[in-house]
C-alpha cells in the first residue's frame, strides 16, 4: 500500500523550498526496484558522511563513480567471465546502479575499495559567503539641536 502525501499546505507557508518538495515527491514516486547491493549511509561527523556499498566480487575496474549536479551515481558492471567450471554460482555479479541525491555544498571527498566494501566519503563545505556572520550594531551620533532657521524680513517701524 503506497501512501501519498500532500505538500500543498507547506507551499503556503514556505518560500524557496521547491527543490526539497520535488525531492520528496520524486523519492516517494520512484522507489528503488532493487536495493542490491546493500549499502549503509553513516554520519561520521558534523559535516561528513560515508556511503559503504557491499560490492563483493567486483574489482576496481568494474566500478564507476560519477558526481554531477548534486547527483552521485555508483554503477557496477563485471567483466564477462566464462561459466566454465562452476558447479554453483551464488556470488551475484549482476550490474547495478545506485543514485544518491546530495544536498547543496556536499562534495565527494574520496573513495576506497577494501575487503569487498566500496566506501565513499562525503563532506559538506558551506562557502564563506553563506555562513552566518555577526552584524555589528552601530549607534547613530546624537543629534545636536540645530539653530532655528532665520527668515529675513524687514523690520516693522
TrEMBL record:
It holds the Pfam family HSP20. Residues 30-140 form the SHSP domain. Transmembrane segments: none annotated. Gene3D superfamilies: 2.60.40.790. It comes from Rhizobium lusitanum. Belongs to the small heat shock protein (HSP20) family. This is Hsp20 family protein. It comes from the Bacteria. InterPro entries: A-crystallin/Hsp20_dom (IPR002068), ACD_IbpA/B (IPR037913), HSP20-like_chaperone (IPR008978). Keywords: Stress response.
